[in-house]
Amino acid sequence: MENDNQQSKRKFFELGIKFGLLATVGTVVAAKAFGDEKETETVELMSTDGHLVHVPASEVKEVAIKPKGYDPRVGFPGKKFVMVVDLAKCKNALKCQNACNKGHYITGENAWLKVYKMQESEETAPYYMPTQCQHCDKPPCVKVCPVDATFKREDGIVLIDNERCIGCRFCMAACPYSIRVFNWNEPEQGVIENKTEYTPDFCGEPSVKGTVDKCDFCPHQIVKGELPFCVKACPNDVFAFGDMYEDAVTNGSGETFKLSKLLKDRAGNRLMEGLGTEPSVYYLPPVDRIQDFEEGLKNFNGFESVHKKE
Asked: Is 202 or 31 the better-scoring residue by pLDDT?
């Protein structure tokens, strides 16, 4: 029963975000008339006017939400994507990093998402902290790029156009969070399946030597109505992702939370708030932990990872 509930919640988000994006992209959902009284399983979806509706699960059809004339440098107008990271839940399982690497064809030390062991002093409790691009509303990296390779979309996502990037690394120097990586060598990423034409929001190809990379908030997942790779892969629901304007974020189990209440109740904060970059990633402090801190082995980035028994 619990597994069925989780699948239902997951289905709710995957379809619900599509309904939510309809208000922006103007797509119409195909569904039959709800005249069958024997229908028992329903999914809760968000309509284009922002109301929640119950729809028979069997009647909902997959639809494409990528709008006509979609510009990857503009994104989705009327959206503001944000992420919440619950430090009380992180056990450094590194499923998030592995999924991100696989989804973006990343290898070795160039992981876009890194997990650090944090401890303010010997007397305080240690905790793990996932760190990735903060997708700032006022990104210093965008200001210093001389060729407009780094840019901020209308939906708040900050991206890199590797076809424009000249490898000057000004953006890396300007980023106060040290999350960008530089491709010094040709990537060893093997055979890439399902190659697609390059776009700044998802190239579908290996990284390019001499260019900069970073977390992209998975716009190629969002456009399909799916959560970013790290959110879906985390076994402890450390991550939640959503739209600030809808005041909702959803974790990998499909549970949706009111963003403003979550941040208020859990004392949410942002990294280096005093710098004025206004990040789109919020952190919930590591208090009342549901996961015990465990020391473990080190992964290829030199960070400690939990050694789990099978």
From this structure: 202
